[in-house]
């Protein structure tokens, strides 16, 4: 896990070092800058495999030079294949395997590697720079391109300079609480989409992007439930096993949920040493899962550490939030994620997580919502719209936001999209162009739950969950590995009949049945809480002055396209405990802090 930087803009070495220093938390073990044929290569190393200096980057092989961030989990298999072809290796790193593999197979190496990665390889003979990002977008990849000049980096801060903030990106953020790829907060800087490669030909100053992997049309397999359960178990065991390999201490995050407890259970079976586990708790029982996690840890016999989080802990982390999340990021669970990694770093450098299980196995509450509202959505829209306008909902005591949303939504695809985007709720003028990049979910499956899961993977997983985990872990130089984000698990889960994963309101059915072999069902069968924080109540109490100070009229009026009167009404309703508008208030608060951090007021 590292930080990369490349550019053909003629910055001097001190300028590049300064750029790397601004994200030095990504790789505290070694920093290097080299220039080859007018291209500057910068690298920050967090040493995980082969801690010897021989594995520092930039790394060279014949005419090739690489800078790389991530882990190739199946590198040993690929290395053996290359050795059989006659190649010799000087290190024990996955970096050298990736580099030599590219030498032999060129871009076809992407079909062979299983991992999380963002890398660039320069060929001095052809004067072509080849870059790629992993299939699920676990590792970040930002690039600036303008008439042949480029910069590439693991984070956007080193690329900001005096670039202009994108007003459209602000609107996207207010809709989604993140800025979806390929867009970023500034103009002319982009995210390389997951499963894509980028090639810059420096002979003619051209750039092209090609997709090498994506979700595809899927039909449920004809397979028995028991056979599917055993195949999935074997696949998860392998996904965990290959992620336990490291030359530094490894642990596991353990919440009270199904995903992390299953990953930890498997890790205790695969690991040769006792697993260290970590969890975050809260004084508020509505959000606290730490007691359940401690039960799991006792059953699994792990070395467990619980950290209780309170408002002052979060307030202290807000400067860290704006430091490492260098685009506006509105998921408040980033705060406990930061705290969890801060604690974890004292004990291990690599941690397994359960991220990705909810997307593939229907774990989020919105899947229940889709099922509950299916019959409503089957009613013709013209009738539903009339019902919503009438007083019938109030008459029957059904004046809920979710039901009204279903009644007012034209079709099921729009209802799915509303899960992830508020579609102009806070805006003066609605802007929806970003959704054009995510329309594949409509054609990959006929099942409405699978459609929602696919949009979850393509839109939310990359831009929210993966960003949250990457920045929170890198903030404290921790590498997080997620077995559920193994592309083989994603593809396998999508091939299973839906009732294997979701049946009669029972989420993650097949995962639950696998977990029963390690933890009694009566212990793990708990309501889903998610990795949330009671920020909504805190902003009415302990943090009230902080929020009012940040969300002043001067700031609100400076936000492009924001419906200020509407937001101020929401803020008042929330503070007076009439409605819960936590998500909207937090988004504007985060944006205010981002403005302060980067001087964009």
From TrEMBL:
Catalytic activity: L-aspartate + L-glutamine + ATP + H2O = L-asparagine + L-glutamate + AMP + diphosphate + H(+)
Active site per the UniProt annotation: 2 (for gatase activity)
GO BP, sorted A to Z: asparagine biosynthetic process
EC number: 6.3.5.4
Keyword Ribosomal protein: no
Entry-linked SUPFAM superfamilies: Adenine nucleotide alpha hydrolases-like, N-terminal nucleophile aminohydrolases (Ntn hydrolases)
GO CC annotation, single: cytosol
GO molecular function, one term: ATP binding
Record keywords: Amino-acid biosynthesis, Asparagine biosynthesis, ATP-binding, Glutamine amidotransferase, Ligase, Nucleotide-binding
Homology family: Belongs to the asparagine synthetase family.
The name this protein goes by in its record: asparagine synthase (glutamine-hydrolyzing)
């Amino acid at each position: 896990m590292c930080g990369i930087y490349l550019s053909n803009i003629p910055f001097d070495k001190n300028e590049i070092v300064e750029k790397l220093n601004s994200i030095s938390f990504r790789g505290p073990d070694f920093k290097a800058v080299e220039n080859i044929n007018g291209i500057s290569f910068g690298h920050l190393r967090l040493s995980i495999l082969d801690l010897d200096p021989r594995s520092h980057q930039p790394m060279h092989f014949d005419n090739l030079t690489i800078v790389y961030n991530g882990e190739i989990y199946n590198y040993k298999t690929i290395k053996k294949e290359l050795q059989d072809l006659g190649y010799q290796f000087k290190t024990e790193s996955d970096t050298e395997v990736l580099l030599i593999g590219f030498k032999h197979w060129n871009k076809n190496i992407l079909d062979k590697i299983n991992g999380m990665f963002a890398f660039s390889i320069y060929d001095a003979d052809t004067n072509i720079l080849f870059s790629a990002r992993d299939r699920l977008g676990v590792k970040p990849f930002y690039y600036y391109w303008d008439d042949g000049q480029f910069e590439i980096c693991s984070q956007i801060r080193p690329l900001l300079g005096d670039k202009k903030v994108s007003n459209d990106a602000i609107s996207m953020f207010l809709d989604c609480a993140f800025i979806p790829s390929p867009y970023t907060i500034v103009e002319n800087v982009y995210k390389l989409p997951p499963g894509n490669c980028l090639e810059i030909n420096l002979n003619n100053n051209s750039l092209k992007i090609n997709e090498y992997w994506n979700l595809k049309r899927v039909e449920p397999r004809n397979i028995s439930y028991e056979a599917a359960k055993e195949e999935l178990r074997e696949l998860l065991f392998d996904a965990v096993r290959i992620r336990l390999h490291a030359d530094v201490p490894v642990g596991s995050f353990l919440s009270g949920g199904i995903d992390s407890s299953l990953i930890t259970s498997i890790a205790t079976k695969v690991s040769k040493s006792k697993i260290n586990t970590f969890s975050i708790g809260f004084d508020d029982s509505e959000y606290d899962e730490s007691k359940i996690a401690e039960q799991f840890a006792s059953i699994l016999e792990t070395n467990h550490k619980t950290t209780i989080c309170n408002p002052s802990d979060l307030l202290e982390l807000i400067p860290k939030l704006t430091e490492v999340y260098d685009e506006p990021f509105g998921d408040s669970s980033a705060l406990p994620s930061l705290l969890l990694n801060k604690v974890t770093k004292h004990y291990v450098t690599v941690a397994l997580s359960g991220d990705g299980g909810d997307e593939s196995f229907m774990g989020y509450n919105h899947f229940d919502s889709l099922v509950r509202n299916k019959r409503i959505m089957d009613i013709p829209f013209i009738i539903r719209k009339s019902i919503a306008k009438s007083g019938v909902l109030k008459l029957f005591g059904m004046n809920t936001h979710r039901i009204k949303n279903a009644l007012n939504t034209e079709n099921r695809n729009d209802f799915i999209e509303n899960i992830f985007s508020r579609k102009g709720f806070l805006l003066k003028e609605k802007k929806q162009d970003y959704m054009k990049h995510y329309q594949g979910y409509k054609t990959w499956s006929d099942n409405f739950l699978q459609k929602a899961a696919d949009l979850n993977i393509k839109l939310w997983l990359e831009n929210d969950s993966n960003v949250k985990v990457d920045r929170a872990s890198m903030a404290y130089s921790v590498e997080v590995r997620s077995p559920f984000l193994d592309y083989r698990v994603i593809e396998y889960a999508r091939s299973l009949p839906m009732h294997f994963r979701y049946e009669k309101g029972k989420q993650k059915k097949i995962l639950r049945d696998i977990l029963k072999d390690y933890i009694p069902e009566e212990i793990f069968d708990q309501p889903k809480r998610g990795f949330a924080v009671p920020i909504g109540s805190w902003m009415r109490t302990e943090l009230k002055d902080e929020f009012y100070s940040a969300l002043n009229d001067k700031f609100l009026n400076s936000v492009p396209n924001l419906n200020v009167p509407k937001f101020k009404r929401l803020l008042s309703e929330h503070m007076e405990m009439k409605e819960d508008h936590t998500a909207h208030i937090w988004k504007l608060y985060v944006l205010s802090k981002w403005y302060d951090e980067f001087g964009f007021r």
